[in-house]
Amino acid sequence: MSKTGYKRHGFTIFLLSGCLMVMVFMGITLSTVLDGSYVKRVLTNDNNVALIRNYTNQKLGSLVNSYSPINNLSATTLSKSEVKKIINTSVDELYDGNPKLTTGDAILGTIGDNLKSESKAQGLNIGPEIDETLSSNKGIMDQIVNDNIGPINSALQNIKQIRGIVKTIILVAAVLFILLAFRLRLKVGSNMLFLHHIGTVGICASILLAIVLVFIYYPVATYITSNVEYGVKDVLYNILNGIFTNYISILIMMFVLSIIDWGSTGKYKYN
Which residues span the membrane (predicted)? Predict the structure, then answer.
């Protein structure tokens, strides 16, 4: 092959790189951002549970401790297991596209049950007062939930359609990649030279993906910094960094394998 090989096949290589980048990017997105099970695993790790628990208990303290008999009960705080249960329920609702979240009800309901159990153990007959206190704060709790989760819930209302669109994009990109790869193989007439070009495709796709990630990460991080409360901000940063760690890991692996392929078949470039 002459030194003009890249010029002759440059457009095909560019299209292949774009298709590969789209497949990798959309594939990771489908298995992370758009996967409720993945999000639950991230949110329920010990660090995030501790952050969410501290934030929630702080908000609860300002709501229910205004009633003096309740103020003396330790049950006004949520345990780690209770926080995990509420997280799992909330994520399920978000990824089912539920327009009305029950997170606030779940939090107040759990606290109510805990308070009644502890007050009964201490010989206090204040069940109705507990219900009244929690009921009077339901609107405030719902507002807190809506302020923190509402924008996410709105974005995920069409989650099933979004998943379908992403899967379709992956399928179309995969079909185009196969057709273009087949065309390239016919044009170059050599398996080793074809593999060399595929290595080039992988390198270019890695660079394109890195550029896309930079243009996505910083606006999202800036939005979190500017629009989210401190307690929730740390959790969202953990989620964002966890997701981007997946992208970067795949990107590095793809780049390294492509470099190895490209370098090991380089001697066939001008044959």
Answer: 12-34, 164-182, 194-218, 238-260
> Distance between CA atoms of 265 and 222, rounded to whole angstroms?
43
**Segment 204-233, tens digit of pLDDT:** 999 999 999 999 999 988 888 887 777 778
In the chain, what are the domain boundaries?
A: 5-35+158-268, 44-155
Angle at alpha carbon of residue 46, lines to 108 and 89, rounded to 5°: 40
Distance between CA 39 and CA 92 in Å, rounded?
A: 10
DSSP notation for 37-105: HHHHHHHTSHHHHHHHHHHHHHHHHHHHTTSHHHHT-GGGS--HHHHHHHHHHHHHHHHTT-SS--HHH
Give the whole-angstrom CA distance, residue 76 versus residue 79. 10
Residue-by-residue DSSP string for 211-226: HHHHHHHHHHHHHHHH
